[in-house]
């Protein structure tokens, strides 16, 4: 039996140092967050729940324990791989405690499939879905060479050094701007998405910016996973500026490569595809310069001969002016004649149109229409009585014909119609039987009858007596 509660000063319940439940939970939460902090945890997903708030709640478990987890909406939208019960994942999060209920939990910041095989499976599923939606249908030509190339990559990586070295050697005329973004980790995809959006908005203010290169060096599948982000692929697809992607080595292919307008196997190859080789261009310019020099000499020789010929044919300016004056007088006379002829023609045309307008005057047309309407009204008034008389006579004839063939008229002459109990007309005596109830329909009224005997025409039955009803 437990000892009774005591009110002595040593009783903890009366001690001023006693903590409230909320204060204890608050201290426990702070201790967990400060001492344990952010960790990676691997386990199996269980009880995945996605309420309408957009948050994701689930349990991470192994064969000995389980851990409640919460993935809030702001981070859930960056999780590319689907989360399903039974999947084995690695999650990164902050160990904490939900104070209102005292629940120990992990606030998840990132989720990825555990093991490369699962990553590849998630990659293939997402790739198939985006391909079906047409996200990989971009194929716009990139400017060659670009006037202002925007490079999205890490400022400290080998990729930017390779790109700048190739551009400087091949085509130093292109302006290059480095847009520093992380290319690995959970912040990489959101940073690149934000940079793409900003560059597309700024392109309207600076038309010189005409191409984007997204690149980084090689690495493992996990290192390159940011470039398999679904939202990054969609941002590349919707970019107004054409995008080239060069991620990893030749064997590496990410969703960003498929969504881009063009891809290159390495950063150096991307730079080679984007710009021409200036040495080749210089050689071509030299050949063109030689051709131009030869063409100029030939043209000068030809023009010199033509000048000599024209000099021999050159007349005095006064003669040329006199000939031009005579030609001008002739043209002036032709113009005056043409103007008079045109004025006469337009005058005749105006007179003809005036006559046509008088013939088609609205007053005259209205008068003619009124006369036609009056004549039609008179014909209508004359035709209506005749038509009514014809239809009245025809209706009377039809009524007489109908009366002649009406069954009621036949009944009126003394005939009757026999009907059995089902309302069927009796046409033969053989269709009845003695004792059967019948009904006779007369010209006026009905009779209820009973069959007492059945016979045929000229025959007798029931002891030689004629059949009767």
Automatic annotation (TrEMBL):
Annotated function: Bidirectionally degrades single-stranded DNA into large acid-insoluble oligonucleotides, which are then degraded further into small acid-soluble oligonucleotides.
Enzyme Commission number, as recorded: 3.1.11.6
Annotated signal peptide: none
Record's keyword terms, sorted: Coiled coil, Cytoplasm, Exonuclease, Hydrolase, Nuclease
Catalysis: reaction(s): Exonucleolytic cleavage in either 5'- to 3'- or 3'- to 5'-direction to yield nucleoside 5'-phosphates
Class of the enzyme per the UniProt entry, highest EC level: hydrolase
Domain of life: Bacteria
UniProt gene name: xseA
Protein name: Exodeoxyribonuclease 7 large subunit
Oligomeric and partner information: Heterooligomer composed of large and small subunits.
Coiled-coil ranges per UniProt: 285-348
Main location: cytoplasm
Protein's cellular compartments: Cytoplasm
Positions with biased composition (Polar residues): 7-20
All residue ranges annotated as the OB-fold nucleic acid binding domain in the record: 19-111
GO molecular function: exodeoxyribonuclease VII activity
Family to which the UniProt record says this protein belongs: Belongs to the XseA family.
